Amino acid sequence: MARIFKEEWKVYGNVFDQYTLRNLFKLQTQGHFEDLLSPVALGKEANIFTAKTKEGKVIIIKIYRLQTCNFNKMYDYIKTDPRFINLKKQRRKIIFAWTLREFRNLLKFRELVEVPTPITVLDNIILMEMIGRDEPAPQLKDSVPENREKFSKELISSLKKIYDKGYVHGDLSEYNILNFDDELVFIDFSQSTTRNDPNFKEYWERDIKNVARYFKKIGLKTSEEELKEQIFK
Ligand SMILES: Nc1ncnc2c1ncn2[C@@H]1O[C@H](COP(=O)(O)OP(=O)(O)O)[C@@H](O)[C@H]1O
Ligand SMILES: [Mg+2]
Fold first, then answer.
1. Across the strands, what pairs with 121?
2. 3-class SS at 78?
3. Domain span holding position 9
4. Same domain flag for 177 and 125
5. The domain spanning residue 184 has which CATH number?
6. How confident is the model at residue 73 (pLDDT cuts 50, 70, 90)?
7. Ligand nearest to the Cα of 190, by number
């Protein structure tokens, strides 16, 4: 077992630490996927890969890096979330809580809007559905929806649902919305929090600013104030 582990995962030795490699191996042994396929994105805190299941489906693996992520910033963002109020300021504890929070947010937000179906979570690793057919669907920043009026109505109505349920995405922009055949799919919920979080309003302000900026960029006229009126009414 140890030998197979070593051989198969050796190529990722420079990307991941031993702990993460062991977790990936554990998830693989549990049958969640057969092989890692290819890197999709390299973020500030996480690496995203595609993987193939034994049924031949492609899924997404999001891995928070234990060594090089900014856990101080993570702590600042998570410490006010009432769901994680007793969290101690220790690197691994924070990263695991951060990952778990994103997984829980996926479970919550899927009741409201389109999100990738979460599969499982282990410490610093999340497995979820891949949005797309053979390849991951493009981000909104690279693929503007055909019908902009319909798109803006749908986006506003999704945001209203999120607001009405007492949540905020917290990192909303054209980077964290995928355009899957003109269907909007929200991703990246690691900063999402609830109404009881003292930063709730500030995050909404920021999210709406980003949406207004994007609308302007693609030639839509809805302003920040109009967005607020429609979402907060
Ligand atoms: N479930 C998914 N399906 C398809 N593509 C995804 C999925 N999750 C992430 N991606 C791709 O990987 C990128 C980075 O993922 P994201 O969760 O936003 O991580 P980060 O925190 O690094 O921004 C996304 O912008 C998107 O292009
Ligand atoms: Mg992102």
1. 126
2. helix
3. 2-129
4. no
5. 1.10.510.10
6. very high
7. 1
